[in-house]
Design goal:
Largest sheet: 6 strands, mixed
CATH class: Alpha Beta
Oligomer: single chain
Structural class: alpha/beta
Bound molecules: adenosine-5'-triphosphate, magnesium ion
């Protein structure tokens, strides 16, 4: 593979709880090419979210290295990581992590503010992104006033509003009915066609089929060789 964008090298992530040691990831190596759309699949507890969080710089490995776009990120400070994420990555978390006191629109506008976009234009951009995920009529609602599927779509809009080159998404259709899931799958396909690199976790065959490649995990390891 020529243009490696994400390079996870011999990564182990251990959780220690008292005397117990749990290997969430065990010597995992994986690469994702620029522009690739990869679906990560595997049973509950197999390490999917752990892997995604390491790629997104949300968590750090116990051993091994994580490289993204030629930069080693697992050794960066929290501050440097926060800045790095702003320009490189959009993340949709498994449990959304929307800010509860901000409206849908404010949640989606926040990444633009953090990046220092001029006030003029921020709102229009955030509204357009919310419209794209079908939430044009929910702008002023708080997360607590939205359904699970609506919150999930706000989280996707927030992850995409900066137009990051990489999208990481943890079960982005997990709370959607089939019509809305189809809409999101179509959006993800469109983004992949436009060259965005996408790594997403899913249990859903429809979504896995939309990806270029599937990476299967089991018990903290890659279950079968990537087929590129
Ligand atoms: N903060 C933590 N402390 C201790 N153990 C953890 C922690 N986070 C994850 N684990 C453990 O690491 C393993 C992998 O968890 P992970 O969340 O990556 O699984 P997953 O594949 O995303 O599962 P699911 O499909 O249920 O979301 C699990 O056994 C989990 O219990
Ligand atoms: Mg998970």
């Amino acid at each position: 593979m020529t243009d490696v964008l994400i390079d996870v090298q011999n990564v182990t992530r251990v959780y220690t709880m008292g005397a117990r040691t749990l290997y969430a990831l065990r010597d995992v190596s994986a690469q994702v090419a620029r522009g690739e759309f990869v679906a990560v699949v595997g049973p509950s507890g197999s390490g999917k979210s752990t892997l995604l969080n390491l790629i997104g710089g949300i968590d750090k490995p116990t051993n091994g290295q994580v490289w993204v776009d030629g930069a080693r990120i697992d050794t960066l400070s929290e501050n440097a990581l926060a800045k790095w994420r702003r320009n490189h990555i959009g993340i949709v978390f498994q449990f959304f992590q929307l800010l509860p006191t901000l409206t849908a629109l404010e949640n989606v506008t926040l990444p633009l503010e953090l990046r220092g976009d001029p006030a003029r234009g921020r709102r229009a951009r955030a509204v357009a992104m919310l419209e794209r995920v079908g939430l044009g009529a929910r702008l002023t609602q708080l997360p607590s006033e939205l359904s699970g599927g609506e919150q999930q779509r706000v989280a996707l809009a927030r992850a995409l509003v900066n137009d990051p080159p990489i999208l990481l998404a943890d079960e982005p259709t997990g709370n959607l009915d089939s019509a809305n899931a189809e809409g999101i799958i179509a959006l993800l396909r469109e983004l992949a066609d436009a060259g965005k690199t996408i790594v997403l976790i899913t249990h859903e065959a429809n979504l896995a089929r939309a990806a270029h490649r599937t990476l299967a995990m089991r018990d903290g390891e890659i279950a079968r060789a990537p087929n590129f």
